[in-house]
Amino acid sequence: MSAPATIVDVRGVDVELGGRRILTDVNFSVRSGDFTGLIGSNGAGKTTLLRLMLGLVQPTQGEVVWPSHAREQRRVGYVPQKVALDVDVPLRVRDFVALGDDGHRYGLRRRTPDTWRRVHDVLDAVEASDLAERRIGALSGGELQRVLMAHALVSAPELLLLDEPLANLDPGATEDIVSLLARVREREHVAILLSAHDINSLLGVMDRVVYIANAHVASGPTDEVVRPDVLSKLYGHHVDVVRVHGRFLVVTGTTSQEPVAEHPDLVVE
Amino acid sequence: MHWLFEPGIWSNAAVRTGAGVGVVVATVSALVGLFTVMRSQSFAGHALADVATAGGAGAGLFGFSPLAGFVIGSLLGAGAMEAIGVERVRQRDVATGVVLGGATGLAALFLYLITLSSSSAGSTQSILFGSLFTVSNSSFGVIAVVAAAVCLALAALGRPLLFVSVSPDAARARGVAVRRVALAYTLLMAVTVGLSAIVIGSVLSTALLIGPPAAALRLGRGLWTTLALAVALGVGAVGFGVVASYDSYYWWPSHRALPVSFCVVALVVLELVLVNVVVRTTRRRDAGARV
Amino acid sequence: MFSSFMTNAWIVGTVVALLAGATGFFVVLRGSSFAAHAIPNGAFAGAAGAALVGVTPLVGLITFAVMASVGIGASRRHRSDVATAMALVMMLALGAAFLSLSAAYEPQVEALLFGEILGVATTSIAPVVIIASLCAAALAVMYRPLLFNAAAPDLAAVRGLNPQRLEMGFMLTLALGAALTVPVVGALLTFSLTVGPPAAARLVTRRPGSALVASMVLSVITLWASIAASYQSNLPVGFFVGSLSALAYVAARVLTQWRGRRV
Ligand SMILES: Nc1ncnc2c1ncn2[C@@H]1O[C@H](COP(=O)(O)OP(=O)(O)O)[C@@H](O)[C@H]1O
Ligand SMILES: [Mg+2]
Q: Is C11 a residue whose pLDDT tops 50?
């Protein structure tokens, strides 16, 4: 089997917004089929990085390269964290999902049965088939999130970008969405890049991590990135990485180099 | 100064009263309009002038005082808009449109019935454009009193209104009755617009309600400075507009004066354009300096 | 009521109502009621200007309607209502200046505002039908982008939809429709049909296509009823169109509230 193709390559990118440096020398790439977690605390620049990839933010240095021309061909799906949605628009869920395929096209092309089959297919993939006939303005937050995923998936993207889909979810719902995304990746053969401020909910499914801190990023397989030496370099000061029951705890702001505790279940790396 | 103030301009009583009323209305409109612009209620602000006109036509038909007709018509319109629903911006747009559409239908009926009964020519045009020069001295007192009452009410409402306009969610969280404050403000706007619509016509009413505050807001200073700027720009446009209109009689050999409404609106638009140009060029220069 | 004298009114009225219903669907969707009010009202000032310069009113109407729509369409999204208000008052004030300089007759002004649908000339049928078809074609081409942009502007932008261009296209369509319908049925009548029936239609269905059709049907019914009532009562058509349009919306609101949930 040949190596998976690169979908997007972010090369030495700097971003400034409002005269302030937000991101510095960002390098990473996403290959087809990857499940990548984009991890960083609030305000670290996750949304900015996603918008950079979509071409909605311009870099001051470096470039974002799409070797397969996925972006020109609009084969990138995006689920923003917040959507300004007019709830009064007379639109069923399936109409809205279909607009993800042809909503940007001027002209009179009729929708074929194939289009509708595809719409129902992606609604099925995100386990939202029962919502198809509902009015878009009458959905709950969780329902809307699934519909937005279907909307992003309907044009068969190579890469799905999701901005903090796990924010504001209770632990059970978080697990549901993460496992749903894992199934979507298999079923739709789509690479996933998902931003989150907590790394642990993604550990089971994530192949690679892009970790943002202090305007810099480190990227690679999870075990190679989430380590005290790598993260300390990123943050610019000493950082502890604690493992409890197979979960990570990144402790920043400590000046001590001592182990944090002597608990038998605790491994300080 | 001779070229600016044609001989005899201030000895004309109609011009004096007109200028006085214009200054009063411009001041109230600028103060009230600042919130209209901040709250993106320009459409309602304009529509109420047309709704007030329907009220005025109704008053004319049934023999009420026109001023009462304008103000009550405007208040009823504002009440109807609020009743239809104003939670979201697009709902507000529809509510305003529906009320405006219905009111213009009524205006069409009243005006038709008036022409049937009295054949009073010139009504449509004077209702649309008004004329500062036809305000009688006696109505000046009433207008001044109503205007002062509006200013007092606005001062009382000011703080919660500002809070609600800037961040409605935070205001709601702090226990401010957002809907009630919004309703109170819309009614206040209705009185202002009804008043100015009868005095200066619906066109000028909208121009003075929206233009000077929008220009003042563009300059981006503190609240008091912005209020003062808005009043200055509004009063300035009215003052120079009256003078220009009076003078324009001498501009053409045909001796046809330009309407006051045209002169004032042109000045208001000019102010807004100039402010926009100035703000944009200084912003660009600042941005250039930073790089 | 169906005499040959009235035939033109029925034909032109139906075409205008269909167009207003279709345009209005998008006007309500996009929250563009103010522009839909400002463009035809401002355009009427152009007719006064045309009289002053001595060209046919249609030239003035189209010039002013296009000027207004470009001014509104090019404004920043933030506070575009201010731009609309300013465009409107500037055009009306120009209209006032033109009128005072050219000494045009008041009845002409009134006709442009309130319309003369019962006195439509046979020669104005063909232009109305042609322009209405052009507008309908433009709306059809923009149908999905307009829907998408209205429902979720950010997502539409991510998919590469240029909102500025779309807004400009829509405003120009409004202008074209206004320039032609204003002299025939008046600025006020068109506006009432543009907001009331469409706002009612979208309450009673959740399918975009059905809402569009319902909007057009409701608009035509409103106009037909108004023409008939006006013919019977000798009261102005504008009165019936205005009040029936508002009534249609209120009825739809009451109906959905009474049913207890939205469709
Ligand atoms: N348009 C903008 N202008 C100036 N600064 C911005 C802009 N957008 C975001 N920022 C700043 O960039 C930083 C990163 O923001 P963001 O990418 O939204 O972070 P995250 O999504 O990780 O929470 C924040 O400090 C934010 O204030
Ligand atoms: Mg973010």
A: yes
pLDDT interval class at B5 (50, 70, 90): low
Q: Any idea which of A117-126, C24-33, C101-110 has the lowest mean pLDDT?
A: C101-110
Residues of chain A with pLDDT under 50: none
In terms of Cβ atoms closer than 10 Å to its own Cβ (0-12, 13-18, 19+), residue A14 is: middle
Question: How far apart are the CA of A53 and the centre of ligand 2, in A?
Answer: 14
Superfamily the domain A1-75+157-236 falls into: P-loop containing nucleotide triphosphate hydrolases (3.40.50.300)
Report the atom number in ligand 1 closest to the C-alpha of A40.
22
Q: What ranges in chain C are assigned the alpha helix state H? A: 4-30, 33-53, 57-73, 80-102, 106-114, 125-151, 153-158, 163-185, 187-204, 208-233, 237-259
Q: Which CATH number fits domain B13-290: 3.40.50.300, 3.40.50.2300, 1.10.3470.10, 1.20.1300.10?
A: 1.10.3470.10
Summarize pLDDT for C224-261 with one digit per residue, the tens: 999 899 889 988 888 999 999 999 999 998 888 777 65
pTM of the model: 0.87
Centre a 10 Å sphere on the Cβ of residue C62 and count the other Cβ atoms it contains.
19
To test the ligand 1 pocket, which listed residue (A14, A22, A50) has its Cβ within 8 A of the most ligand atoms? Answer: A22
Which B positions 79-98 lie with beta carbon below 8 A of chain A? 88, 90-91
A96 contacts in chain C (CB < 8 Å)? 151-152
Q: What is the ipTM of this complex?
A: 0.89
Best residue in C25, C80, C81, C116 for a mutation probing chain B (most B CBs within 10 Å): C81
Q: What angle do CA A40, A43, A49 make, to 5 degrees?
A: 70
Q: Are C204 and C248 in contact (CB under 8 A)?
A: no
Taking only the tens place, the pLDDT of each residue in C67-84 is 989 988 887 666 688 999
A78 contact partners, CB below 8 Å, separation of at least 6 = A50, A54, A152, A160, A161, A162, A163, C155, C158
Separation between Cα atoms, residue B217 and residue B229, nearest integer Å? 9
